[in-house]
Design goal:
- The chain has 375 residues and is α/β, with parallel strands linked by helices.
- Helix content is 27%, strand content 26%.
- The longest helix is centred in the middle third of the chain and has 15 residues.
Length: 375
């Protein structure tokens, strides 16, 4: 069934790009290394179910999320795929996780003590999180690590399935802090009386630029699965090309001629110094086009034109070189003719990282998924 959207603003998600990014990674890795597709935060704003399906089709064998609700939502669509919650889960969720075959992150003995489990049912699978330098959840000393390992082993209804850590500076050129974390993780792993099924440490930047020994049993494919480099530095070091999957478009809903001295928008912050055609497009800060993006260029007829005045909650205005027709396509992120506006460009404009941009495009902007240029 085709879904009809009455508002012309929409995000287009190229699933073929996501598949190709996963395929390329699969070819790059050793055959015994599994790909964990990170689809938390609604797949970084791209649509969790659709992205997960594409990633699995291309070779991913595990899905990773951040919260119990994300895991349960995916389990409804994928009854058999492995799902790991990378972040905190409350003890009250433990039995639900066991029943649904959802793997949780164990990060302290106190957390284990607060689990609410019926030990007569299927075991709850857990991965121990080692905090090697992020300063978030996880054990920080070998004694804590071994105590947690022993407690899991002696607790009915629990099964240790993995051990992992997360690197804080893998996307930076200076690798001194990374090496400290790497060394600490290796020291912890060497202390294991028995290695669990999965050891994983490589986030996107690590798997693409560091030594292959850090791939261990699985890698966590995050930002570059969506065609974005983890940092400007990593962008110059990628071992294979990646394709951006996310674009954002709308259309002109009004065009008028502003006379010299007339103003646009709240606060009248833009005043025309000559006759200027102004177009209105139905997207604003309630959609994630935050007000700091005023002045950012968009594409109309393959030409770059600026957003002018203050961005409104539901609309914004752009300066046009001529009077285009109502319904003319406007590309805010993506390609038009020979021009392209990237997520990285937006990130630079608002002084943030590219991860944040697709995540802040709100749910009222529909995601339209397509493959092979068909949507």
């Amino acid at each position: 069934m085709t879904t009809h959207f009455y508002r012309p603003t929409r995000a287009l998600i190229n699933l073929e790009a996501i598949k190709e990014n996963v395929r390329q990674l699969k070819e790059y890795l050793q055959p015994n290394v599994q790909i964990m597709a990170v689809v938390k935060a609604n797949a970084y704003g791209h649509g969790d179910v659709e992205v997960a399906e594409a990633a699995i089709e291309a070779g991913a064998t595990i899905l990773a999320v951040a919260t119990p609700d994300e895991a349960l939502h995916l389990r409804n669509f994928f009854p058999n795929i492995e799902i790991l919650i990378l972040g905190y889960s409350p003890g009250s969720f433990a039995q639900v996780a066991a029943n649904k075959n959802i793997t949780l992150t164990a990060f302290s003995t106190e957390w284990i003590s607060n689990l609410n489990l019926d030990y007569n049912n299927a075991p709850l699978k857990v991965h121990i999180k080692i905090d090697t330098g992020m300063g978030r959840i996880g054990v920080t000393t070998i004694s804590e690590f071994l105590s947690l390992y022993e407690l899991i082993g002696s607790t009915d209804g629990l099964m240790l399935d993995g051990v992992f850590t997360h690197f804080a500076t893998a996307d930076e050129e200076d690798d001194s802090y990374f090496v400290k974390q790497e060394t600490k993780f290796k020291e912890f792993i060497q202390m294991l009386p028995k290695k669990p099924r999965l050891v994983h440490a490589a986030n996107t930047a690590t798997m693409l630029t560091k030594e292959t020994s850090l791939h261990y049993d699985a890698v966590r494919f995050g930002i570059s699965m969506y065609g974005l480099a983890p940092s400007p530095y990593i962008k110059t070091k990628l071992p294979f090309p990646i394709q951006q999957a996310f674009s954002l478009e709308s259309e002109l809903v009004a065009v008028k001629l502003l006379q010299k001295g007339e103003s646009v928008g709240y606060g009248a912050t833009f005043t025309a110094n000559e006759p200027t055609y102004v177009g209105t497009i139905p997207i604003g800060y309630a959609d994630g086009l935050i007000r700091k993006l005023a002045g950012q260029e968009v594409l109309v007829d393959g030409k770059r034109v600026p957003i002018i005045g203050r961005i409104c909650m539901d609309q914004c205005m752009i300066a046009l070189p001529t009077a285009y027709n109502i319904g003319e396509k406007v590309t805010l992120i993506g390609k038009q003719k020979d021009e392209e506006i990237t997520i990285d460009e937006w990130a630079t404009k608002v002084e943030t990282i590219n991860y944040e941009i697709p995540c802040i495009i709100t749910a009222r902007v529909p995601r339209v998924h397509f493959a092979n240029n068909k949507f």
